[in-house]
Amino acid sequence: MRVLVDTNVLLRAVQSNHPQFAEATAAIATLVRRSDSVFFSPQNIAEFWNVATRPVERNGLGLSSDRAFQEITGIEKSLSLLPDVPEIYASWKEIVRTNKVLGVKVHDARLVAIMTVYSVSGLLTFNSADFARFTNITAIHPSSLVP
Predict the structure, then answer these.
(1) How far is Cα 125 from Cα 140, in angstroms, rounded to an integer?
(2) Does any domain span residue 99?
(3) What DSSP line would sit under 66-86, residue for residue?
């Protein structure tokens, strides 16, 4: 299976004190161990950087830029990059139009556009409900991969 890892899972996987840390890391490890193709995108990394370097009092992780860069380097070593290509824009436009996507959900639609362009059918995410409207992908909650 080809699976994109959502930013929320990437973030939990670097927060060893978070209640979902073990679930996030185990789910990613399970996908890699069973030889699934596991991906991240530039959008994931931008979103990761945003939350990782944002102060804790503003709902971030409060990491230094050096530490955030280290974590991103780890993601790059473990998962495969789906680079931005022009086709993503056209796919995104069609997805937001046909699904009547509004507001902040535009970011989810862009992940779906990336998945569409690269024929990735699975999205590993803690927010499965956010992706229910998109019928061409399957949202996979990490708990479904952890015994």
Answers:
(1) 6
(2) no
(3) HHHHHHHHHHHHHSEE----H
Q: How far apart are CA 146 and CA 43, in angstroms?
A: 26
- Say if CB 30 and CB 18 are below 8 A apart: no
Domain that holds residue 48: 2-83+120-145
Q: What local confidence, expressed as pLDDT, does residue 147 receive?
A: 78
Please report whether residue 39 resides in a domain.
yes
CA distances from residue 109 to 31, 34, 90, 122, 131 in whole angstroms, order as listed = 23, 28, 12, 14, 8
Domain count of the fold of the chain = 1
- Measured CA to CA, the distance from residue 64 to residue 14 in angstroms comes to 13
pLDDT averaged over 10-residue windows placed end to end, the chain, 147 residues: 98 96 98 96 98 97 97 97 98 97 95 98 97 96 93
Sheet of 138-140, strand order = 80-81, 37-40, 2-5, 122-124, 138-140
Model pTM score: 0.96
